[in-house]
Every structure is written in C-alpha cells, then in structure tokens.
Amino acid sequence: MKLSFSPEDENFRSELIAFLDEHCPAEAKKNRDLIGSDCVDEDGIMMIPEWAKQWQATLFDHGWMIPSYPVELGGRNATPLQTMIYLEELASRGIPRSVHFGGYAIVAPSLLEFGNDAQKALAPAAIRGDTVWCIGMSEPGAGSDLAALSTRAEDKSDHFLVSGQKVWTSYAMVASKCFCYVRTDPEAPKHKGISVLIIDLDTPGIEVRPLRHVTGHAEFAEVFFDEVKVPKENLVGELNKGWRITMGSLAHERGGLWVTGVAGCQRAVDDIVAMIKRRGLENDAAIRLKVAKLYAQVHSLRAMGWKGFASFAQGSSAPEHSFMKVATSELQQTLFELGMDIQESGLAITDPAVAEEEGRWQNTFFGALASTIGGGTSEIQRNIIAQHVLQLPKN
Ligand SMILES: Cc1cc2nc3c(=O)[nH]c(=O)nc-3n(C[C@H](O)[C@H](O)[C@H](O)COP(=O)(O)OP(=O)(O)OC[C@H]3O[C@@H](n4cnc5c(N)ncnc54)[C@H](O)[C@@H]3O)c2cc1C
Fold first, then answer.
1. What is the DSSP letter of 377?
2. Do 224 and 301 share a domain, yes or no?
3. Cα-atom radius of gyration of the chain, to the nearest Å?
4. Pseudo-torsion of CA 285, 287, 290, 294, nearest 10°?
5. How far is it, in rounded angstroms, from Cα 246 to Cα 196?
C-alpha cells in the first residue's frame, strides 16, 4: 500500500504554495467560511470587491483557477490527484477562488459539455470571473422537485418569450447572465419539456429583488420574468432535453465539494481548540468530550472521502461521496454552534464589535443553516443514499 505522494505531486503542491505566498491577497486569506462584510454594500446587499475580481483573474492567468483544465481555460492539465491536493491546500487555508461559484463551477462545465461553439466560447470569461452568472433553477413551486418548474418559454418563431419567477437565485444582483431552466413543452411529461436558455439580465422585463439570509446579508434574490424576449440562439443543447443538463449541472456543483467541506471542518476544529486554550477551558470535561468526538468525525469523513476518491480514480463509482455533502454540512453546523457556545457572553450576538473573532462563529453558524438546503437538502440527499447506495425501494 502506498501512502505518500509522488515527487511530481509534491512538486505540484510546492509550486501552488509558492504561488499562494506570492499572489494571494490578504483579504482572501481572512476566514471565508461565509461571505464577509466586505462582500456586501452598506445595505447588506452582495457586491464583488475589487480584490476578489483581481484574485480570480490572477488564478486564471496563472493556470490555478481550475487546474485540471487546459491553459486556455485557466488550468494546467492537472491530474485528479493534483486537483485534490489543490482543493485541500486552498480549503485548509480558508482561501476562496471566487466569491461567486456558479459561473466557474456549474455554468462553464455545462457550456463546455452541452453548448455549441459560440456558447463554449463564453466559458473562459465565466471561469475568469469577467462574466458573472447566476443559475435559475428553483421556483416558488419547484425546489427539491425541480422538474415541476413552470417558468414558461413560448416559441415565437424567431425568439422565445419567457414569463415566470425564479427564487433563491444566488448572485442575481451582481450577475449579467442567467443560466435559466424553463418549460418549453407544457404538454410533455414534466422531465421532458424543460430547456436551458442563456438570458441576459439587462433584457427588458426582468426584475431582480434581493432576499436576505438570516445573517441579514442578501446574496440571493427573486428574479421575475415578464414577457422577456430571448433570442433563439441562446438555447443550450437540444429543445426539451434540458433535464440532462440539469443533472450535469448538479453533478458539477457537488463534485469536489467534499474536499472543501472536510477541510473547512478541520479548520473549525483546530480553531475551536485554539479558542478553548485561549479561554483556559482545557480541563472542562464536557468541552473536551465534545471536541474530541468532532475531531474523530472529521478524520473519519476525510478517510471516507479518500476511499471514495481512490475508487473514482480507478474508474469505479464512489458511493461514499453521496454521503459527504450531508455529513460535512451537518458537521459544520455542530462545529460552528460549539464555537459560539464556548463564548458564553457572546452567544448568538453577531455584532463584530462584541463577539470573538469579529463574530465569525455566530455568522458561520447562521450561514451554515443554508448549507443543508442549498444544492439539494439533506432529506433529499438521504433519499438518494437510500435508493441508489443502499438499494432500498423508492418511498
Ligand atoms: C444559500 C442557498 C443558495 C441557493 N442558490 C440557488 C441558486 O443559485 N439557484 C437556484 O436555482 N436555487 C438556489 N437555491 C435553492 C435550493 O436549491 C433549494 O432551496 C432547494 O433545492 C430546496 O428547495 P425548496 O427551498 O423549494 O424546498 P422544498 O423542496 O419545498 O422542501 C421543503 C422541505 O421539504 C423537504 N422535502 C421536500 N421533498 C422531500 C422528499 N421527497 N422527501 C423528504 N423530504 C422532502 C425538504 O428537504 C425541505 O426540508 C439556494 C438555496 C440556498 C439555501
């Protein structure tokens, strides 16, 4: 059994660390479990700070944005193992690649897989962050059951006419384009009448209304479409075959997330231990027990993630990874709550002037409530595990 990295992979790691040391801005090194106060305007509405724009472009220009991609797409043809090293190194330092992941992580891979040549050409700007995208899937009547979506795109021979509403649309207030899932055939069975359109958000008839999280910050929105004219050439893939793209988009969203999730949990455990020492609580038996259990959980999850990765790298499926989103998002909530509890007088007060580490634990706790919902709720993930991993009958 080989439990070490090859010299090539260690060189890759060293090159990455040298790059981060030289180029990573101080703002990106701050704890970024959540959008920080410098990524919202004075009303708490999301904005993209200049440092974040420049950092994403720098990563792209140096081949460190998506290392597995070729140079022209912001990568360096890295192997899957090197990609994992990359994700772990960034996540263990709490360094984000971008403050809006939809474009580089979901839209660009979907365009490259399903788009025509003109649409594929939009991918580099999405990955570099020059174009900001949002993803219009969820609607008031279609979340977990995405196939129930009803935003209608009528075929008007030279264009589509789009009317309906999206909700929880991350980054819509800063995006210029929406990767939008619409119903093009209302008569077909619900999975079969869906298509994907690229919609420019400055088209007449679109209204974006920010929605606030429990943290008070708004980084998602409702998006209303009222007879919006969308050119025919903005259809991605085949008409009425959008469900396949949906599945691809969600897979892109979930792939690799476990690495970041586990590293984020590890960082939280390390920082909780530091806080316990700072506060002289090392001998508190209840706290010791809690943190020891959490430490063991993080290490079990990492081992499970690596096991799944080994199967995946050898061409097999990795059922372990279905469990990772549920486990890491729920573990994060427990960890951030403990970080908050330890502060006693700080408790749930998010005011950075009062709470330790500028309110980090309070803000991450409230923010992490969203992580068991976004990208598929924990209940839905458990249904998937029951059916597809444990082979239990569909309920
Ligand atoms: C931070 C954040 C960012 C988001 N960003 C985007 C975005 O950019 N674009 C976008 O389109 N959407 C986005 N979403 C929306 C997200 O995908 C949905 O919230 C999610 O799919 C759940 O849908 P819903 O909110 O309609 O809840 P519902 O589907 O109505 O579910 C309500 C509750 O019922 C449970 N439930 C539903 N069906 C079942 C079932 N079959 N079995 C067991 N339990 C069930 C759910 O688990 C949940 O607890 C975001 C959400 C969050 C929190």
1. -
2. no
3. 22
4. -130
5. 9
% of the chain beyond a pLDDT of 70: 94
Give the binding-site residues of ligand 1, using a 6 Å CB cut-off: 134-138, 143-144, 168-170, 220, 370, 373-374, 376-377, 379-380, 383
35 has a pLDDT exceeding 50: no
Q: The tokens 């040298």 sit on which residue?
A: 18
Q: Tell me, yes or no, whether 89 and 150 share the same domain.
A: no
Nearest Cα to Cα of residue 386 among 378, 332, 310: 378
| Cβ neighbours of 37 (radius 10 Å) | 12
Task: Count up the domains in the chain and report the number.
Answer: 3
Answer yes or no: are the C-beta atoms of 67 and 75 closer than 8 Å: yes
The string of pLDDT tens digits covering residues 314-323 is 777 777 777 8
Nearest CA to ligand 1 atom 50: 374
CATH assignment of the domain containing 214: 2.40.110.10
Q: What is the pLDDT of residue 82?
A: 93
Give me the domain span that covers residue 279.
255-389
Taking the C-alpha atoms of residue 93 and residue 2, their distance in angstroms, rounded to an integer, is 26
Residue 112 lies in a domain: no
